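Sequence design from tokenized structure. All designs in this work follow the same two-part layout: the structure record, then the generated sequence. An example of the structure record is given first.
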């Protein structure tokens, strides 16, 4: 009966180890971190200033809203 908990622990450790190895083999996708100098992002492209990001998003200066995130996202309101 004492071997059952030890067997369960070993099984869990092996299962967790197998998952982490598979995940590290995948190339970075949408979860990849943006460059450190990316202040604003619109459709995957970084911009240094708000005016350029708003224009890229198709917003006019009057209806351009900046979402508080990093990098900041633009939304036309």
């Amino acid at each position: 009966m004492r071997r059952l908990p030890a067997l369960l622990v070993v099984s869990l450790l092996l299962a967790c180890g197998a998952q982490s190895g598979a995940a590290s083999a995948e190339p970075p996708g949408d979860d990849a971190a943006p460059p450190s100098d990316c202040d604003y992002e619109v459709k995957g492209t970084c911009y240094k200033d708000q005016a350029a990001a708003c224009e890229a998003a198709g917003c006019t200066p009057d209806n351009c809203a900046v979402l508080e995130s990093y990098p900041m996202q633009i939304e036309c309101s």
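Residues 30 and 45 are 13 Å apart (CA to CA). We note this feature because it recurs in several other targets discussed in the main text.
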